[in-house]
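Predict the assembly for these four chains.
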Amino acid sequence: MENLKALVLNCSLKKSDELSNTDALLKDFIKIFDSKHIKSEVIRVVDYNVAYGIADDMGDGDEWPKILEKVKQADILILASPVWLGEKSSVSKKVLERLNGSSSETNEKGQPIFYNKVAGAVVTGNEDGAKHAAGDLIFGLAQLGFAIPPNPIAYWVGEAGPGPSYIEAEGYKSEFTQSTIETASHNLVHLAKIFQEHPIPAEGNVSE
Amino acid sequence: MENLKALVLNCSLKKSDELSNTDALLKDFIKIFDSKHIKSEVIRVVDYNVAYGIADDMGDGDEWPKILEKVKQADILILASPVWLGEKSSVSKKVLERLNGSSSETNEKGQPIFYNKVAGAVVTGNEDGAKHAAGDLIFGLAQLGFAIPPNPIAYWVGEAGPGPSYIEAEGYKSEFTQSTIETASHNLVHLAKIFQEHPIPAEGNVSE
Amino acid sequence: MENLKALVLNCSLKKSDELSNTDALLKDFIKIFDSKHIKSEVIRVVDYNVAYGIADDMGDGDEWPKILEKVKQADILILASPVWLGEKSSVSKKVLERLNGSSSETNEKGQPIFYNKVAGAVVTGNEDGAKHAAGDLIFGLAQLGFAIPPNPIAYWVGEAGPGPSYIEAEGYKSEFTQSTIETASHNLVHLAKIFQEHPIPAEGNVSE
Amino acid sequence: MENLKALVLNCSLKKSDELSNTDALLKDFIKIFDSKHIKSEVIRVVDYNVAYGIADDMGDGDEWPKILEKVKQADILILASPVWLGEKSSVSKKVLERLNGSSSETNEKGQPIFYNKVAGAVVTGNEDGAKHAAGDLIFGLAQLGFAIPPNPIAYWVGEAGPGPSYIEAEGYKSEFTQSTIETASHNLVHLAKIFQEHPIPAEGNVSE
């Protein structure tokens, strides 16, 4: 059995020279992948020059193709987003738009290329909005052809109102958040392993 | 100047013989209405036999017409909802559906009957989901013809995960929640008072 | 291999003595299940006296337990909803709330009882709102423990504005809608069959 | 009475050297503003180098301050967005994030700077998603301090599935879409005029 690969796109508004609360939560996520011998890579999307548009390559220095190539290689995709105004980040929506640009591309069986990949979401915010953010991400990914395991999200948010975010609030001490990390990471791996040996048959889902 | 009336529809899943966390937050809201001499009434919607459907009266013992009559008399409407699965309650969606049943009814100027009424939302939950719930309510009300003042919502939710709700968590001690109550209640009254003397003209918004 | 069972909960606001546009679309869905020897049952939820609340049985003539029993027997669950005000129906939200009441119940391995079941959504409306409705349903189901196959929804809506619904508009003639029916029904069956022989292992997802 | 100004931020993914369907709908919107002597300006946001982040000026060539200055001068703000994957564009979310960066700035009375401005939304897509997109925009704007008139949105989308967009589909022939343009534009002007003479009093909404 080939090794599974996980790709995490951190859709923070901040480049990787700044601390990301979402990254902090992702570290615990990745630990579980490590323990299960899943190779993983975390990318801060805003480190790349990703163009606006709906195409696999928008030209003019567009660096999305580099990220897309990693998505194609991955068995597990996680979109991670901070919460702003109770919603997912603009960066994460741009990622969905760019993935959409490849939704008519097919694999060797004629299925959309994201078939037999599994997806989940990770969200952190200082308050309210994790499920709204995660729900939009999960549904976008399902529409694009990813499969979604049970309990596919891990998140932390604080009490209503301004306040410290994950790192400062020591969100990692939340038993609940740890349990969402544990469940989501395991279920992503479980489903990816199942698909590795038993992929979704090319019947009823093949473009003509 | 006639006295203004506010109607609050508490869309809790629990009848009024059970304690509602949303009601607890509403009490502070109403206090501000009282201080400004706004007559207010809070109704627990599930105390009434409200039918499913899109019509002002579904017959067969449907008690929605009693509530609708109060909405028609009100200058200010507040939809209050608990959070379940990160979203507004099914009861609050039913209220929007029933209000929709009167959306083609017009006032004496030919505008939809909810014109020149103002609306807001109040949400409580033990965790995450207040803005998602409030946003759906606010937008539904705006589509139906209500006007929305700035900062039209008051809410409290706790940290991610299962935990105590508003009353037990002493959410009323949250300065942030108190500030949302203060601002939303004042702005609802301000806009209702402005409309009382300066209603939206019947131009461009009149059915033919 | 045991035969698979599919349960469709039609969350129309209308009882089954009235024509449901959503039912019309569901007929084509079921045809594909029939062709694949999947036993299926369509239930109009409002035919039952389903109480408000978050518990598996609210007592007092609550008929949810009858529906819940069917959900427990099913391998595939489809929530079907009309669109009102651009959103899923209040009935469909009530179904999510009631399913939530069983989310801490576990199977013999200690996983939530909806594990190893797959879920999808079907939506019809005269205009705009299908994806918003479907997205909320899909994400609610994923949170509760259902697995979601790729392209898990089938839908039809007409052009913006009031207009005929599915039956009158002959939505069944839409090639696009037929392709969503084809893909969603096949993928639900594919994933259910995979789980039948290769269920999600009880590791990382077991309550203690 | 000073002349009113309207600013429209077209959040298309395409720069202004490409045809935007949303722009086509906006033209009819602007005609009504013209007829009421409202000065208006339409900006294609992606023509500007708008940085990611939550601050009024992110530095490093960030051109958001130019747009923000226009927002500050405007009495009416319209966010216009195409639909992608059933949701508003990533560009429109970025605009909300950047506006959020000024939400603690206050006017001379101590109210948030967006008070006494009114806001609406315009959406076009080839299919399904207009209300979901518009609802998120409207609620975001209300949270930031804009007031929302009744029926604050104008939109067009076609029947479910791929198909022509506004221009090619001759969406301008839709009586419904024209009526949403008529109503939204008039109500935005009505409310802006009311606020010009009767602004929201600085009571209960002033930062200390």
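The radius of gyration of chain D is 17 Å. Strands of chain D lie at 5-10, 39-44, 76-84, 87-88, 118-125, 153-157.
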